[in-house]
Amino acid sequence: MQHFDVLVIGGGNAGLSVASRIRSQKPQLKVGIIEPSDKHYYQPAWTLVGGGDFNIADTIKAERDFIPDGAVWIKDEALQIDPEQQTVTTGKSGLLKYDWLVAAPGIQLDWHKVDGLTETLGLNGVTSNYSPDYAPYTWKLLQGMRSGKAIFTSPGTPIKCGGAPQKIMYLAGDYFRRQGLKDNVKIEFCTAGGVIFGIKKYADTLMKAVRRYGIDLHFKHELIRVDGPARKAWFRVMDADGNASMVEKEFDMLHVVPPQSAPDFIKQSPLAVQDNPLGWIEVDKHTLRHVRFPRVFALGDATNTPNAKTGAAVRKQAPVLAANLLSAMEGKALTAQYDGYGSCPLITGYGKLVLAEFNYTNEPTETFPFDQSKERWSMYQLKKRVLPWLYWNRILQGRM
Ligand SMILES: Cc1cc2nc3c(=O)[nH]c(=O)nc-3n(C[C@H](O)[C@H](O)[C@H](O)COP(=O)(O)OP(=O)(O)OC[C@H]3O[C@@H](n4cnc5c(N)ncnc54)[C@H](O)[C@@H]3O)c2cc1C
């Protein structure tokens, strides 16, 4: 049985950032990374791919080029975790033993929870930027639309990048406006949520974009069924008294953000929050240590920490987790604290972006010395040019 000082599940944004930090701070530690995928994705750029302003090929690189020096890549899937025995069962590599576990398997996209969706995704005008397979189709659909109705949805579960369902909608609105099609193409936002954004300062700017593009907002609308060939979608609508009814809508284009949850093997493991069907990994929201299994830490989209699930959050979580894990190994107190920082680069049109930044208290915690709730060309360039470079060259290496 292979034995690791630190075993990391998931070689995505979070897993690689932490593994790199641990390897560089303590090169003598044997670090293993369980990751089944040959490819590594820069997911935040998929919004721009859907809007025709980024090449999908530039969002995909070889995983092997980002495995930290000296770490062991176990190119396999984690299937089961036994935190009592300190083992992880894998698909082909057998049982792996660990002294310390870092769980970073990301979020699961539950396409199957919308009836009829998997059969029609990528066809019949139904698309989603949440997959590299379909983000280019979003752009194809936008270019093909001359009239009709484009619906953009957002589900009732927590999702990665809560702003992404809207960002592509604003790009679409801007695209139609620039093509002189604003009056021909009707845009609807159907969200299971009850507000456009949880922080008023940023919500006010988003409402300006909503008005600019003539978007119809439909809150408490949850997509539950799609019939692609018939171009119809059904929404469960909750009224103010909590009564549910069903609404049928026709569409010419439907951009779907699927319901999301922790990966199934996490849900079925002792690491999951009890009494929550979404099965997030239950960690202390400041130290990122598991609340019941002290040799387990977790970060990224799969945890129950109540921050915005973003790469921006991972960037702040990774140094906290690495510091606390190394302290725990030496029997010291955990002093590093994650404050819930998350950021949402809200694209509101081509060359327009509102950089929302906030923490657990939902207080804006802005980086720049100007009002970030204003739409800015400079922040759009940050998203399109600077952040992808930082991701591939600094963040995954644990240097930022
Ligand atoms: C359309 C879109 C737009 C976004 N926009 C932004 C943005 O503008 N700003 C921002 O900060 N964030 C954005 N995000 C979110 C960001 O990409 C995620 O929050 C970030 O990738 C989370 O990192 P993670 O490591 O937790 O998950 P991931 O990066 O998804 O990595 C999880 C890894 O775990 C692996 N894995 C899964 N199951 C197993 C298993 N059983 N065994 C082993 N490995 C496994 C996966 O293969 C994957 O490599 C966006 C995401 C999307 C989809």
Oligomer: single chain
Range of helix content: 25-40%
Secondary structure class reads alpha/beta
CATH class of the largest domain: Alpha Beta
Low-confidence stretches: none
Task: Please tell me the overall pLDDT.
Answer: 98
Q: What fraction strand? A: 25-35%
What spatial form do the alpha-carbon principal axes imply?
globular
Second-tier CATH architecture of the largest domain: 3-Layer(bba) Sandwich
Order of helices and strands: EHEEHEEEEEEHEHEHEHEEEEEEHEHEEH
Main pleated-sheet profile: 7 strands, mixed
Task: Describe what you observe in this structure.
The chain is 26% helix and 26% strand. The strands form six sheets. Strands 1, 2, 5, 6, 7, 8 and 19 form a seven-stranded mixed beta sheet that branches. It contains nine helices and 21 strands. Helix 1 packs parallel to helix 8. It folds into two domains: 2-107 and 262-340, 3-Layer(bba) Sandwich (FAD/NAD(P)-binding domain), CATH 3.50.50; 110-259, FAD/NAD(P)-binding domain (3-Layer(bba) Sandwich), CATH 3.50.50. By secondary structure, it is α/β, with parallel strands linked by helices. Bound molecules: flavin-adenine dinucleotide. Flavin-adenine dinucleotide binds next to helix 1, helix 2, helix 8 and strand 20.
